Amino acid sequence: MKKKFVFKKLKSFGNVRLGKIYTSKGNIDTPAFMPVGTIANVKAMFPENVLQTNSQIILCNTYHLMLRPGEKILKKFGGVHKFMNSKLPILTDSGGYQIWSLAKLKKIEEKGIKFRSHIDGKLLYLTPENCIKFQQDIGSDIIMVLDECIDYNVTKIKAEKSLELTLRWAKRCKKAFKKKKLSIVWYSSRCKI
After folding, report:
1. Does 187 fall in a domain?
2. In Å, how far from its chain's centre is CA 107?
3. How far separated are the first and last CA of the chain, in Å rounded?
4. Are 35 and 45 in contact (CB under 8 A)?
5. Using one digit for the tens of pLDDT, what is the confidence trace for 44-103?
6. Are 144 and 93 in contact (CB under 8 A)?
7. The pTM of the whole model exceeds 0.85
8. Which CATH number belongs to the domain containing residue 10 in this structure?
9. How far is C-alpha 76 from the geometric centre of its chain's CA atoms?
10. Beta strands in the chain (DSSP E)
11. How many CB atoms lie within 10 A of CB 91?
12. How far apart are CA 131 and CA 36, in angstroms?
């Protein structure tokens, strides 16, 4: 299945840019407000109510979606869009922040993150590769690389090491993404990526 994804920078104001993202599910003006549908549900709103807000995209969370409803159920429904009855594009984050904030027991290593679910204590393992695969398999329109989130008060050396780990994970995410062979085009007015 081919997916359309194009980003165009429309204007610049110093370090700020105004743009538009074109996806197969709809267009998004940037910057954009994204209602959060953590577990494939924007709380206290029906899908038609979300559309009435003129929102152009919804943010869902990989960590929470993995735990519930889970990949098996999302695939059975035909992906996250059909599961939540949303016609809008969906951005899924990597889950790195939630692991940092919710998992009391976690071990971060080069291969990925071992952690215990905050729901039932089940041992889970999130790698850059399975993070990307999950987001692709549920049909997310914009996916994020796995990142290590750290406390704000760490040393400069710890922050640099965390950044370097996240960059290595990003390379692995990109490689995993390319294996799926989706037709995605990145474009700005200056360069192609």
Report:
1. no
2. 21
3. 21
4. yes
5. 999 999 999 999 999 999 999 999 999 999 999 999 999 999 999 999 999 999 999 988
6. yes
7. yes
8. 3.20.20.105
9. 20
10. 5-13, 16-23, 26-30, 58-61, 90-93, 106-108, 113-116, 123-126, 142-143
11. 21
12. 19
